[in-house]
Amino acid sequence: MDLLELFFVSLGAAVVVHYVVKLLLFIRILYPKIWFPLPKSFFTSMGEWAVVTGASEGIGRAYAFALAEQGMNVVIISRTKLTLDQVAKDIADATGKKVKVIVADFIKESVFSEIEEQLKDMNIGVLVNNVGMLPSFIPREFLEAAELDQTILKVINCNVKTMVKMCKIVLPGMEDRGKGVIVNISSGIASVPFPLYTLYAATKVFVERFSQGLQAEYKDKGIIIQVTGLQLFLHFFFKIFYPVSYSYFLSYRQWLHWGLHPNGRLSKNQHDDSVTRRLCKKLPAVS
Ligand SMILES: NC(=O)c1ccc[n+]([C@@H]2O[C@H](COP(=O)([O-])OP(=O)(O)OC[C@H]3O[C@@H](n4cnc5c(N)ncnc54)[C@H](OP(=O)(O)O)[C@@H]3O)[C@@H](O)[C@H]2O)c1
């Protein structure tokens, strides 16, 4: 084997090893229990209550269930009282934990003082900033969104302002107690510039940067702040085009288990990502 041949064989071997290692690291996500173990009492040790925004449906509902299954009482917040009451009943029946319902429309400025009042004196260990919305489900150029001024207000208030305000409400208590977990929901879409979902993608980049900066500020105070980036399109594809297979084969439980993995950059730079993985470990099947 001459020198050039040896060089290319070594290069090829290095590339194969690189991708095999990447694949093995990815496969760990499928077995969070083994690779990212946390003590059983981890969430309850953070505090008595978990707060989840946008919890009447979808991913927020699944988070609320998962946290109650981990032994926490949960506060669920969104606009529709009827749905929230039903979710509260389902969680209480399934887990025996307390569920507090707060009806709020995050688009309105006035809701935050009311929420702060309702959360006053509660020992909140976990906050999941889940609520979020698209300007329009159909991909569109920025100026083509219907009622643009209103849309800008709604998307920024829901996706950005609510997260910041909820952190402001919950962080002082966590700081006093020297512990707490905040999980902010971003999107896979934040990883690259995303024309036609520009406003939405930009708000999710804000979620990531805010979470990363906040984690750096509050890490030494015992508070864990993580951001997760969900992968968007598969979800919508199954939800819309295959509603039947979706509900059977891609329940939220599976979705969270397979698709909800923490943002790599934050995990690598700030701390390990075992908290979010632990939540994804065992979720109720919610179709
Ligand atoms: N689903 C995905 O594929 C995907 C992908 C990437 C990222 N994400 C992110 O994951 C999060 C959850 O997504 P999802 O698909 O589970 O959402 P979803 O099914 O549309 O649920 C949204 C939740 O937020 C509540 N909500 C909506 N507008 C609200 C408002 N103005 N005030 C208060 N509550 C409001 C809704 O309840 P009411 O209507 O009763 O208020 C509902 O409980 C979002 O931040 C989203 O950006 C989702």
UniProtKB/TrEMBL annotation:
Cited Pfam families: adh_short
Alphabetically ordered keywords of this record: Lipid biosynthesis, Lipid metabolism, Membrane, NADP, Oxidoreductase, Steroid biosynthesis, Transmembrane, Transmembrane helix
SUPFAM superfamilies on file: NAD(P)-binding Rossmann-fold domains
A Gene Ontology molecular function term of the record: testosterone dehydrogenase (NADP+) activity
TM annotation in the entry: 6-31, 181-203, 223-242
GO-annotated cellular components: endoplasmic reticulum
Location within or outside the cell: Endoplasmic reticulum
Chief localization: endoplasmic reticulum
GO aspect biological process, one term: steroid biosynthetic process
Family under the similarity heading: Belongs to the short-chain dehydrogenases/reductases (SDR) family.
Name of this chain's protein: Hydroxysteroid (17-beta) dehydrogenase 3
Source organism per UniProt: Sphaeramia orbicularis (orbiculate cardinalfish)
